Amino acid sequence: MANQSAVGLPDRAVPMKVIVCGVHRTGSMSMRSALWRLGFHDCYHMHTVLSNLDDEPEQWIRAFEAKYAGKGTFSKADWDKLLGHSQACCDMPTAPFSVELAEMYPDAKVVILNRDPEAWYASVSNSIHCAVGPLELLRDQYCYLLDPLMRNWVRFYTTMVKLVLGYNHKTEKDKALAWFAAQYAHFRLHIAPHRRIEYSITDGWAPLCKHLDVPVPMQTNAKGQLEQVPFPRINDGTHFRANRQLYMSKSIKRANSNLFALAGRAALTGALGYAAYLACKTWLGPRPV
């Protein structure tokens, strides 16, 4: 029976069907799109966190601290609440918990999403850790100061880097590659071979669909002929930067709105104070000499 929430509704609304063991910049966004096309809705991804910054960062911080710092617990009921609307998961922050998730959801099929380690390191360096200029740093500080959701994101991200990654990607390449290798060794050691497939995005539809027991998606071309749907190829460096700009634009709008609200409240407070001063002066009359 599904875990029940406080109002009597199941926290897990849909079954977990696919667990993708693939860290950031391994083709996870393309995989998410492919799984959606195959009917697995939704696939939990870092973009899911970015779309739910009001409450999900705090839940992930609890999960990080429970596993990596021995602080508190994060139970299956907690996972059902966090991932309950997802039939699949991939990318960070779920990837480091893939073994635990595979144990909790034994009917889910597992995909180990591979990428060449050196190519992975270069991709992360050129996207997540690409250099930013002084104006971008100033923008980030402005958003952090005035946008509570940005502060939620920063706390989530810094906790993940500290507890889960534990290295400086820019200056500690050897540690980064060692972490990458250790993640995949952990997946393969603890998840039974019959449940998983070794896969990379360049493999296309056939092996993935066979493992998940779903048909290869087809479409009719301009000539009326049936052909395979092109496998999605998204979130390269250009897409990544565009997405980051989109999220930052949303944060700037929230920050501006909060700034105007603060300015309005300050002006209102000043006006009320001055009105009170004038009222007191009128009612009480001039002070005696």
TrEMBL record:
<protein>
    <recommendedName>
        <fullName>Sulfotransferase domain-containing protein</fullName>
    </recommendedName>
</protein>
<dbReference type="InterPro" id="IPR040632">
    <property type="entry name" value="Sulfotransfer_4"/>
</dbReference>
<dbReference type="InterPro" id="IPR027417">
    <property type="entry name" value="P-loop_NTPase"/>
</dbReference>
<dbReference type="Pfam" id="PF17784">
    <property type="entry name" value="Sulfotransfer_4"/>
</dbReference>
